[in-house]
Design goal:
alpha/beta, Rossmann fold, six-stranded mixed beta sheet, about 25% strand
Length: about 290
């Protein structure tokens, strides 16, 4: 069992690293990419040359006998929901970290970016059932609690059901929110609920991968076990044909997944446990910022 001191030390390390990244790289881009729900009326002021004539308040102008314009400010506050898959397949990692650890790191970056922009952040941890729900709130302590639970929560179940998680989000989030769905997407039959969620919310998929899932090393006869079902098979990795078939099957699965995201106009960020997560995140923000530019 990990003691409290170790947990606090690790949380502090993650906070220092992610907040530095947010301050230097992501906070401004996050603000540009994720807009508020609308515009709030702030005041009426006298017209000055260069003001948009479409903002003239004709009622006030008529009373005052000179032009006045309405001033609006962006309604910035958003609700951000981090929906994180904590099924047993997330414990796999063939290199530096597990998929779950990578998921926690990227979720921490997103959470601190949201909090820095005064947005509320919530958390859903799920397997084939909801495991933990933390309602959206603001503040540093709240964010640290989210990160702690992402790292140390012990799931009750092992399997994945993305459809269940998306259905729950659609029911819980009554207003439009920014939803980051963080998973390895090793599941089926979730297209319908994915489509509903993508229409209702600004849904971004973050696919967590490990290089060991793309190709197997040549190490002879091995036993492969499905972490979620416990099913085992014997696999001869000395066979080039078998290794190629394994790689082709995984490539086909991921290609179908990405076509699904494209069909539903869902942005997808692909992160790997053997690579720095920052370049793909920066690429996502820059690409989306350019797409949203007038």
């Amino acid at each position: 069992m990990i003691d409290t001191k170790s947990i606090l030390s690790r949380l502090r390390h993650i906070e220092i690293r992610t907040r530095r990244l947010v301050d230097t790289s992501f906070a401004g881009q996050y603000h540009s990419v994720f807009k508020g729900r609308g515009m709030n009326f702030e005041e009426v002021r006298e017209y000055v040359p260069g003001d948009d004539t479409r903002s003239i308040d004709w009622n006030v102008t008529a009373r005052m006998d000179k032009p006045f314009v309405k001033k609006f400010t962006e309604e910035r506050e958003l609700t951000v929901m981090l929906a994180v898959d904590v099924s047993a397949s997330g414990n796999y990692g063939s290199v530096h970290s597990s998929k779950r650890e990578l998921a926690a790191e990227v979720a921490a970056i997103l959470a601190f970016s949201a909090v820095k922009n005064n947005d509320k952040v919530g958390l859903l941890l799920f397997t084939d059932q909801p495991e933990l729900i933390i309602p959206p709130r603001k503040g540093r302590q709240h964010t640290l609690r989210l990160i702690r639970d992402m790292l140390y929560y012990e799931p009750v179940r092992k399997k994945t059901d993305l459809s269940n998680a998306l259905t729950l989000l659609n029911r819980l989030l009554t207003r439009r929110a920014v939803v980051f769905l963080i998973s390895d997407f090793l599941d089926q039959h979730f297209e319908k609920t994915l489509a509903v969620a993508s229409r209702k919310h600004d849904l971004i998929a973050i696919e967590i991968c490990d290089p060991g899932e793309f190709e197997l090393p040549e190490v002879g006869l091995v036993t492969l076990e499905d972490a979620e079902t416990g099913r085992q098979i014997e696999f001869d990795t000395s066979s080039l044909a078998a290794r190629n078939a394994f790689a082709a099957l995984e490539e086909r699965r991921r290609s179908e997944l990405h076509r699904l995201f494209q069909k539903r106009n869902i942005d997808c960020i692909v992160l790997r446990t053997d690579r720095d997560c920052l370049p793909p995140l920066r690429s996502f923000f820059l690409t989306r910022e350019r797409r949203l530019a007038p």
